[in-house]
Model the fold of this input.
Amino acid sequence: MTTATKTTLPTGERADLLEALAKQRHFLRFTTRDLTDEQAGRRTTVSELCLGGLIKHVTSVERNWVRFIQDGPSSMGDFTAMTEEDWARRADEFRMLPGETLAGVLADYAETADRTDELVAALPDLDAAHPLPKAPWFEAEAQWSARRVLLHIIAETAQHAGHADILREALDGAKSMG
Done:
């Protein structure tokens, strides 16, 4: 539990959502234990994914969805209008770039997690909804409530924690569980 949530102490559904998210965040971060920056940036599969890049991506996803909860679809932009340059910048989320460190990536993730937890504790209504941004992967005219967004963040984090476990095992045989 973060400092922010200790102060506000959400209960009920909010506490359950934050606890589920905290568990998945832990597993994701745990995959990077005892790694050097070089190891965190190393590709261990045919994809562009590396452990540090995966955490960068999850951080960006969480940050963007929290902005969506606060400001609606304009905070995320129109994915159908993205240029090659936009997609290239997005691809950089999956890599450790020169000058980036694992400690810095993890600190950014912790800061994002704190902001998310503070928002969840302070939200007046988990049912408040916004239309989804334009994207080929969203159905037209769909809306998501803050609750649905939080469930999505939990699912994304869990899915990527599984990816991270595979990457780590391919790197040096270490496993998060088992």
User: Anything to note?
Assistant: The longest strand covers residues 129-131.
